[in-house]
Specification:
The longest helix has 17 residues, at about 155-170. The protein has an eleven-stranded antiparallel beta sheet with strand order 5-4-3-8-2-1-9-10-11-6-7. The chain is an alpha+beta fold. It has one domain (about 5-130, about 195-255). The chain has helices spanning about 135-140, 145, 155-170, 180-185; strands spanning about 5-10, 15-20, 25-30, 50-55, 70-75, 85-90, 95, 125-130, 215-220, 235-245, 250-255.
């Protein structure tokens, strides 16, 4: 899934896709920074990149943020940061947060590829609903990492748990036992399990609590044809965008196959 040209959007038990194409809502991929707070000076000398910029007035977008029309997806491809957090103050301003306790980062500026672009070429994007039924076993199993399986009937929930137990056992990862184990094991479409990092906003009460963020988007390494966000060798990397339900801070992390 990570190698398709689809960015998946999640919200309110709905899924949509963001793909290349034109619409009346002027969604875009790439381009220059779209608001105050995104410059190097505002980000402790780190360059962040604008990916999708989505108009939340489009009814096909299953995401809502109070007081915000334009939702930008940003990420830091500089290896000095694995995760990025940002809170949208308005359509003109945001504030960024970087984890301070991640040991697996570079001390010097470094990039996925030589001559990494300071920004990606801007291109139009269209949003379309994707079929998804949370009461359908196959749909719920495929997207359990985003929505869980709580909308399934009791027999179908048991079937989903038996299926993931067989998969985990075949991989030598052990069979889930508790409800928490099953919640973590039922993690598709995320390649390395459901992310559970806390909110990165130091002013938020979720800053010390894991597992509270809501997944809102999953982006492949080639979100538009010909643009390889993680360089020549990063085709198996996906970006996961999550949002804090209390302060609406967005946390972006990456996983790879």
């Amino acid at each position: 899934m990570a190698k398709t040209l689809n960015t998946f959007l999640f919200g309110d038990y709905r899924i949509a896709t963001a793909t290349s194409g034109r619409s009346g809502y002027k969604h875009t991929f790439g381009g220059a920074h779209d608001r105050k707070g995104t410059s190097r000076e505002d980000c402790n000398g780190i360059l962040i990149h604008l990916l999708h910029r989505l108009d939340l007035t489009d009814p096909a977008v299953p995401i809502a943020i109070p007081g915000v029309r334009w939702l930008p997806f940003y990420y830091c491809f500089d290896f000095r940061a694995n995760d990025l957090g940002y809170q949208l103050i308005s359509d003109e301003e945001l504030v960024t947060f970087f984890p301070e306790d991640d040991p697996n980062v570079s001390q010097e500026e470094s990039w996925p590829d030589d001559n990494f672009p300071p920004e990606f070429p801007e291109s139009p994007i269209k949003i379309a609903p994707r079929d998804y039924d949370p009461t359908n076993l196959e749909d719920a199993f495929q997207w359990a990492g985003a929505f869980g399986i709580g909308k399934l009937s009791a027999p179908d929930q048991a079937t989903a748990k038996a299926r993931v137990s067989e998969i985990m056992d075949s991989l030598g990862l052990g069979i889930p036992e508790t409800e928490e184990d099953f919640e973590q094991a039922l993690s598709r479409p995320f390649m390395q399990g459901k992310p559970d990092g806390p909110c990165l906003n130091p002013e938020c009460s979720n800053r010390k609590t894991r597992g509270q963020l809501i997944s809102i988007a999953l982006m492949p390494a080639e979100p538009v044809r010909g643009v390889h966000t993680f360089g020549r060798w990063g085709g198996g990397v996906q970006l996961i965008f999550q949002m804090c339900p209390k302060c609406y801070t967005i946390r972006v992390s990456n996983q790879c196959d």
